[in-house]
Design goal:
The chain is α/β, with parallel strands linked by helices. The radius of gyration is 22 Å and the shape is globular. The strands form 3 sheets. A 10-stranded mixed β-sheet has the order 8-7-9-6-10-11-12-13-14-15, with helices on both faces.
Length: 487
């Protein structure tokens, strides 16, 4: 894959009828929906039908299942994502016809003309933080436009064209997309090591964030001072005379969290900024979510939003789809689905799950995402996953990548075992739900975790638990494990 370089931003009026390839994807559907809201004609295709496709049709899009060059018969421009390969038949046809082919980030940037653009970036937490920014601004009486790589549970949508002056966007660093947007306020939640398939080395990855945050259009950068990478970025920018606002638990933070209380249902802290302090409460578990909320509140303070309204908006925020989303409960076993796909994210998810489980166990079904990430972080995944009471690992979700010889889900399972974790390797996703159901006992919290198709297991596990017999403390049907925690 090649890193994207910023491209000229077209005018919406010049795009005509816009065709989205893979329109049903989480990232692409939000942009397509925003285009429809702006009155553009939209067509699109995807490999399979979904509720998202049905919803886009209700909004006025014309969509097809499958990829066919004939879908471009009436198109004036085409939108693709990094995941779409050059040999895709519709991409080939668009090139033959000489149609403008826009990357998703360019198409999204075209929506931002005339707005104050708030871009939320970071290795971790950007979806939830972006959504919290929206919730806070809405609570403060604003109507922001937004495009988020996930569905807000409060609004049941990942995008909206509002009447307010601000456009809030989740800015993806994986392929360099975040450098495309005309950002005026940049929020950076974290800078860790990831996406080396694209960036090559950690230093280049960090430099990408610097390029994003130091762009000429950026007037303010808000960074988490407790994350080493984000703190280093903020310090470097400040030395160059850029305006930086810090948040976190450190004493030097401009917006500081103290008196933190964490439990399984909510989280609370005292937040202080200059001579003002208040109680920040959110209905999500985990210290990482308090940091996300503090990032959003820092934005609210920076733009002069109504403080109490912003806090109320955060208090009423119910999360986004696939971010520690409670799917349901059966036989006193709670099933939660989460998008975590980096060791740091999985660790935060497990920490939150421990708060929810209390004296119960935590069972995690993990699907590695990308062969390159699995190769780079297999041992780190093993160390983190071993903290769960039971681990089920399935094979790698390839997404945009071709297989790498020797890199499978088994290398992660072996890493869990090497860290004394209690692990079962189930190569086929179709077999994993039954494996989890056999392991689960009353009082357990079951997690389905990963950025791929593992999300489909959560309702299957719940249905399996509903159909199962009443459980006792152990079961002879539990599958064999690769290593025991006490080994």
């Amino acid at each position: 894959m090649t890193l994207l370089l910023p491209q000229p931003i077209p005018s919406l009026a010049d795009l005509g009828r816009v065709h989205f390839i893979a329109i049903g994807g989480t990232g692409m559907s939000g942009v397509a929906s925003a285009y429809l809201a702006r009155g553009l004609q939209v067509t699109g295709c995807d490999q399979s039908d979904s509720e998202t496709m049905t919803d886009l049709v209700r909004q006025g899009a014309e969509v097809w299942i499958g990829h066919d060059p004939h879908h471009l018969a009436s198109a004036d421009s085409v939108v693709v994502s990094t995941a779409i390969r050059p040999e895709n038949p519709e991409v080939v046809e668009a090139s033959r016809l000489g149609l403008p082919i826009l990357h998703r980030s360019v198409a999204l940037a075209a929506l931002m003309e005339g707005y104050e653009v708030v871009s939320v970036a970071g290795t971790h937490g950007k979806t939830t933080t972006t959504a919290m920014c929206v919730a806070g601004l809405r609570g403060a009486g604003e109507d922001p436009s937004y495009v988020i790589g996930g569905t807000l549970l409060d609004t049941q949508t990942g995008s909206h064209i509002g009447l307010g002056p601000r456009f809030v966007v989740e800015a993806d660093e994986s392929d360099g997309s975040f450098r495309q947007y005309p950002t005026q306020i940049a929020v950076v939640t974290s800078v860790d090591c990831d996406h080396l398939d694209n960036w090559g080395e950690p230093q280049s990855y960090a430099q990408g964030f610097d390029g994003f945050a130091s762009a000429e259009s950026v007037a303010l950068v808000i960074v988490d001072a407790d994350n080493p990478g984000a703190r280093s970025l903020g310090e470097s920018l400040a030395c160059r005379g850029r305006c930086v606002m810090t948040y976190g638990q450190s004493e030097s933070c401009d917006v500081r969290l103290t008196d933190i209380v964490l439990n399984g249902g909510s989280s609370q802290a005292v937040v202080t900024h200059q001579d003002w302090s208040a109680t920040l409460t959110i209905n999500l578990p985990g210290l990482h979510n308090l940091h996300n909320a503090c990032a959003a509140l820092s934005l609210g303070l920076a733009v002069g939003a109504d403080r109490q309204g912003f806090l109320a908006g955060l208090a009423g925020f119910h999360g986004t789809a696939r971010r520690f989303q409670r799917v349901g409960q059966a036989h006193q076993i709670l099933v939660i689905d989460d998008y975590a796909h980096h060791p740091t994210e999985v660790a935060a998810t497990l920490e939150a799950a421990r708060l929810v489980a209390g004296k119960g166990r935590v069972i995690i079904c993990f699907q590695p995402h990308l062969y390159s990430r699995t190769r780079e972080f297999a041992d780190a995944f093993g160390a983190v996953l071993a903290q769960a009471d039971e681990v089920v690992v399935v094979d790698v979700y390839p997404a945009r990548e071709d297989p790498i010889p020797g890199v499978t889900g088994e290398v992660v399972a072996q890493a869990v075992a090497s860290h004394s974790g209690h692990v079962t390797y189930v190569p086929l996703l179709a077999d994993a739900a039954d494996a989890v159901v056999r392991l689960a006992q009353p009082g357990d919290v079951v997690l389905t975790v990963g950025a791929g198709s593992v999300t489909s297991l959560a309702p299957q596990i719940l249905a399996g638990l509903e159909a199962s017999h009443t459980r006792t403390g152990s079961s002879a049907e539990v599958p064999p494990v690769m290593a025991d925690q006490e080994a």
